[in-house]
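Standup notes
- DV: blocked on the single-chain target, sequence here:
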Amino acid sequence: MSEAEMEFIEIEDAPEQEFTYVVQVKLHNTTKPYSFGTDDPTIKDGDWVVVETVQGIELGECQGAPILKEKYPIAIPLKPVLRIADEQDKQDYEDNFGYAEEAMRICEEEIQDLGLGMNLLNATYALDRSKVLFIYTAEQRVDFRELLKRLSSRLHCRIELRQIGDRDQAKMVGGIGLCGMECCCSRFKTRFDNISINMAKNQQLALNIEKLSGMCGKLMCCLKYENEAYEELTAGLPKLGAHIEYDGELYRVTSINVIANEARIENPDTYQTITVDDLREKAELRKGVTIKRTSDTTHQKRIIQKMIERESASTQEMAPVEATPVARPQAKEPQRQHNNRNRKNQNRRERRDEQPQNTNVTVRTFKAKKDA
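- DV (later): unblocked, structure below
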C-alpha cells in the first residue's frame, strides 16, 4: 500500500470506539507509522499485527510498545488492531505479492485492448484478497467503467482504480536526484510541501527551470529546506537593483551574498564592497530616485585625461633624445598622404575637362553600287 492511500487512515469517518492503548504501525510502502487503537498490552515493538484500514485488512509492523491513550491524546477516531499476526497471516501476505503481479498483468492486457491512456504503476491486494487496488497515472481523465467490468469478471474481487499525480509517482518509483542521493520523497518525506519560484529567488539561484526541477518535473522539494534561513538573513535588506544612499552618495545594489556577508554597490563613478550589516543599517532606500549617467562628452574627457596621464608617465621613463625623432614622422605622415590624395583628384578632374563633349550627331554611310 502506498503513502498516497494511507494519508486518510487517521481522518476517515468511522464509528467512535474506545481503546485503552495506542500503538504505531508501519504498513507496506509507507514512510511513516500510523496510529491504531488496541486493548492488548502484550504487543511489543517489532511485532506483526493485522489492522483494519480504509483500504481493508492489512498487515503491518509495530513501531514501539503500546502507549496509554491518556498519555497520547488524539482527537480523531482510531482504527483497531485486530490481532497479532500468526504464520498463516504472514504466508498470505507473502502470497499476495505473486497475486498482485498476476493482477497487474491482466489489467495491462485489458488497458491495451480498450486503448485507454493509462500508465499502470502498482497493484496491491488486501490481506484477505477481498479487494485489489490499482494505481495509475494519466494525462487526462479516463473513463474506465468498461475496464472495471472486465477486471471484476476475471479477478472475482472488488476493484478500485486510483489516479495519482507526478509527485506521487516519483515517490513510488524513486530515483537518484541531482545531488547524487535518493529522492527525498521516497527516502524520508511524509508529505509534500508547497514550493514556489520565490524560494529560488530568495537564495539567489539561477532561474533555470530544468535545473530546479526534480524527477517529477516539479520544483525540487529541497528548495524549502534553507528558505527560512535565507528569509531571516535577508530581512531588512534592499532588493537587487534598488537605489540607496550610502555615505551621502547614491548607489545601486548590484549583488548581495549573505553567506559571505558581502554586498556590492555601484554608481557611474565608483563602486564599493561593503558588509551586509552595513547595507542593512547604514544604507537608506531611495524610492523614485534614479542615478543619472554622466554625459558622453564628460565621459570622453575623462578617458582622454587618463590617456594623457598614462602617456606622460611612460614618456618620463624614456630618454628625451629618442622621443623627439619618433614623434615627428608619425605626425607628418597622415598630412602627406592627404596631400597626395588631393593632387590625384585634381589631375583626374583636369583630364576630364580637356576631353571633347559628345553631341548627338546622326551619321549616314552609303556603299558604292556594283557594276551590272
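- Follow-up: The chain has eleven helices and 14 strands.
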